[in-house]
Amino acid sequence: MFVYLSKKIAIPNNTKINCLSWEKNNGFIAIGGDEGMLKVLKLEQASTTTSTQTASKGLAAASNLSMNQTLEGHKGNVVVVVWNEQQQKLTTSDDNGVIIVWTMYKGSFFEEMTNDRKKSTVKGMAWTNDGQKICIVYEDGAVIVGSVDGNRIWGKEIKNTQLSGIQWSPDNRLLLFALKNGEVHLYDNQGIFVSKINIQCVQLSSIRGTSVVGLNWFNGYAQGNRPTLAICYETGKIQLMKNEYDDYPIIIDANLQITCSQWNDSGTILAVCGIKNSLNEKDSNQVMFFSAYGQHLRTLKIPGREITSLSWEGKPNCRISLAVDSFIYFANIRLDYTWCYFNHTIAFLEIASQNPSIDFNQSSVIFWDTKSNQNFSKIIDFVISMSSYGEHCVIASETHKIISKDANLVVENSKEQTYMLQICNSLGTTVDSKYIDIKPQFITMNSTHIIVANNSQFLLWQYHTPKSSLHGMKQKKDKRYHVDDQPSGVNEVLSDLDRISYDPPTKVIPTTTKDPICSITASDKILLVARESGTIQEYVLPNVAICNRHSLPNKICKMAINCNSTRACVVDATGVMTTIELNNQTYNDKPSENIRTGKIERKDVWSICWAKDNPQLLAVMEKTRMYIFKNDDPEEPISSCGYICNFEDLEITAVLLDEIINGMASTNMSGEQYLLNLRVKSLRDTEELLQHVGLTEAKQFIEDNSHPRLWRLLGESALKKLDLNMAENAFVRCTNYQGISFIKKLRSIQNEQIQKAEVSAFFGDFDEAEKLYIDADRRDLAISLRTTLCDWFRVIQLYRMSSGISDQQMETAYKEIGKHFANMRVWDSAREYYEKAHYIEGLMDAYYYLEKYEELEGLIAKIPEKSPLLSKLGQMLATVGLTEKSVEAYKKCGDIKSAVATCVSLRQWGLAVELAQKYKMPSINALLNNHASQLLEEGKLPEAVELQKKAGRFLDASRLLIKLAEREIEKKSSYLRIKQLFVLAGLLVEEHLHTSATVTGTNRATVIAQLSPEDSVFIEDVWHKAEAYHYILLSQRQLKAGLMHSAVLSSIRLRDYEDVLNVEKIYSLIALASCADRSFGTCSKAFIKLEGLETITEHKRQEYEELAVNILSRYDPIDTKMDQTPCFACETLVADWQTSCTNCGSHFPACIASGQSIMNPQVAWQCSSCMHLAKRIEIASRKSCPLCHSLVNLQRTEM
């Protein structure tokens, strides 16, 4: 940071100032002094709205007193002034103990209330953060806590104690009391003692105490758990603590007799003022600035006898007010922000208090594109430093150790802290990264390497970006050096030349040095490393060979190298800037110890920047003035307070970082508002000469101050005046090939007015160029210009103003306008112009995105056959599920293969097979098989069945259903579920037979006879299994309904299905039904069968035997219920349970409704779907087939 005095205000009558306070929100400054002097001032900057005052924004703008009010009421010396910023009130006290509260009314302050306790003097007052309560402490130990409306909340007398200060904790729960003997006590907000603060910076004793003069507790957001409590003693000792219980505070010895201290508005800098103890110092009044971690940043010397108080301005923390004798001094502060500029983008570290949602160990980096005014945020672990080059920047951050949430999982972390380097583009996207183990306190970047350094070492990393010339090449090892080493570069050269990788001998690099590094900078050729002693070591890159040393009297803070690496500019800790000469082309055996300083030496410098395109141009910021040096001669200064971003093409870009980083800028930041574009004097003079004098004089001036930018200006001015010779000469001098080619074109044009039009078009003034073309009666050139610019709206206007324009030209213009609206996704307007242009392809897109599918289908008829647009239209229609129209488009295009593929993708298998058969595509079967196999592999058996069914492959679908039924059998699903699957398979078989009979013109029996033996067996087997599960369900249903004899007949029928059902279950059911029907003969036979089964266990066989004995020992094994019916073939009486005639062998089919044998099938009812029989008396009351559940038709069926 850099600090300098900027303004001085004298108090009338030389009245000594005892205290002051700067209100943060509105900028009021309260000043208290001797003899009751109390003033309120307000310092405002002059308005800078005009373009001529653009550079004078921020601190560079003139500041004036907008308020100077004297408040009367105190008689004694005013010793304490405190602002209540939330309530906009001022509380003051004098040495007589009088306290006055002042309030704001109509732009002025008036006395609101007074408290006069004459017993003792007020030593301190403090408001809570919300402005609702105030704590007042008196020297005699009295404490009063009152509300904002003047009511006392509580009071306390701390006996035998003299108080000297008071401070609230940030959460308003605790009170800190400073005692006159140097102790600091902690109380709660009700006045109850809690503890003593552990003071380590001074030795406290009861005999001789040390007074506390500063008790500062920052009440904002502290990122990274940094110290927030500062306790300052008059002896110069300072103790910084993270909280009230911090046992390891940071101790500082300021070597000052401290009188006052205060944190800045962000809590990152502690300002301490006092008097230097040494009497030999000329300027005994000093203000010292320390970071929150105790690092000394800067010292400011103030003239005068005694400095008594200081106070920071609110945001943007750029000014501080100082009370010295009867004067108020204002000092401007230029902070060292973490930021960089690259590719028209400013990357900066957001202040943590502006984004409390970020974790305290993380940082938010904002990337502000100054051209588009877009912001991109990137959350990174705690950022340490950043730098930039070209189109990228590097961000160095501290990484955190990985902590596992699982107690059983152990994560190995390195004992050493690791750090991360990220290469980012202007959008904040990381393009390359690296982990390192040295803290990147200092960082710089060139086109190929990133150099980071800590106090004693520096490391070179060769990075890669997408546009890097090294992209794709083998990455070299990182190079690490100690600052005390003297590398010659030999190892690096050997490593580059040796095809076999040369590994130099490893050695242990020390981690400490007596002369630490304090700054680094680099170009593509040179690396400069500055040390705290003032020595600058010069290395040659990329081989890192030390070639020179430079010595300066003070510690270096900033360095920069010019564009050709011949000179460097350095700024020391006192703000003195010096230039030094570099010998980047010299390789000496021993480093040169000669001191070779440049001719430029300036004071109070805080920002420097070399021009990127001229090694002689240097921009320097001194206080609020910018100086531009050419060689060693400065130009007239420019009033500015911006941080220099870039110096190129005789133009300097600066940014008002204070307003942006501290949150004073609006959300939509404007480059015009916060960016300063400053031109060098030669550029300004050239523009003045070209505007008011003439080309010849300007050319003479440019020859004396040659620069490509100036020659380009001359060429453009000469071109506008049609001085082609001078313009050509100027463009040659600035190597503007485009301009030279344009002049060659102009020479071929004879008409001067057309030449002027071409020049206007060349400089982008297209309206003027069009006007000149029309005036020259060359409307065709005007149309050509607008066509080149794709300004089709204007082209149509010009067409309508002209004659002889063809319909094709108008349609072309309409088509381009339609494309314009299509690119903007305004499809209604695009459709309108596409229709005017009769542009079918555009209309397809418009209708598609407007979801006008009927109009989209109508385009099929408008497109000629074999047109490629039909294929695109087919794809569009397919994406919205319009299969038939998509197939129609493909068929008209002649692409039958795509039509079939569309049907397959949309699962329209019937249409796919129909197309394949119609156009004789044998590949459809393979396609179906592949798709079915894929579904089977994925376990989608029902989908595969549906596929085969829709494709008309009923037998294949039936086979898949059989597999599905077998799976259900394995899972022991219900009989009903299994029966349904077998019946569905059977119905698919019947559908296949019916389809085949329809195609061949025969009947079902003929089709069955013509089937292959394998298919015939399969068809029979399908219905066989369906019947098995049907009859077992039927018999169980009859048994449950109490139809015992019918259950016996149905269960006996199950003997034909022992190959399908479990044999034990079949005969168990027969035994149960026959026993219930008292048909013990059948029951005995069933038990005999069960006892003879080989698949049951011996224990179960014994159980069957015992059960049979128990039943048959009581009843004779005889069937008492037996009906006999004559055979339909031979008239022999046959028992109702028999399935065939014992005489002629005729088979009796079963009734699917009752399970009984049908003795005369000729008069039975037959289902038209499953072709099974049932007795008409059984089916008369049913509406559907008992087996397949199709509708019942009661017409007689002949067998």
Automatic annotation (TrEMBL):
Residue windows of the WD repeats: 71-112
Q: Name one GO cellular component term.
A: intraciliary transport particle A
Name the InterPro entries for this protein: Beta-prop_IFT121_2nd, Beta-prop_IFT121_TULP_N, Ift122/121, TPR-like_helical_dom_sf, TPR_IFT121, TPR_IFT80_172_dom, TPR_WDR35, WD40/YVTN_repeat-like_dom_sf
What is this protein called in UniProt? Answer: WD repeat-containing protein 55 homolog
Which ranges carry the IFT121-like zinc finger domain?
1149-1192
What keywords appear on the UniProt entry?
Cell projection, Cilium, Cilium biogenesis/degradation, Cytoplasm, Cytoskeleton, Repeat, WD repeat
- What sequence ranges are listed for the domain IFT121-like TPR repeats? 1021-1119
Residue ranges occupied by any IFT121 second beta-propeller domain in the UniProt entry: 339-663
PANTHER family attached here? LD29485P, WD REPEAT DOMAIN-RELATED
The biological processes this protein is annotated with in GO are: intraciliary retrograde transport; non-motile cilium assembly; protein localization to cilium
What positions does the domain IFT80/172/WDR35 TPR occupy? 710-799
- State where the protein is found: Cytoplasm, Cytoskeleton, Cilium basal body
Q: For the IFT121/TULP4 N-terminal domain, which residue ranges apply? A: 1-334
**Organism per entry:** Polypedilum vanderplanki
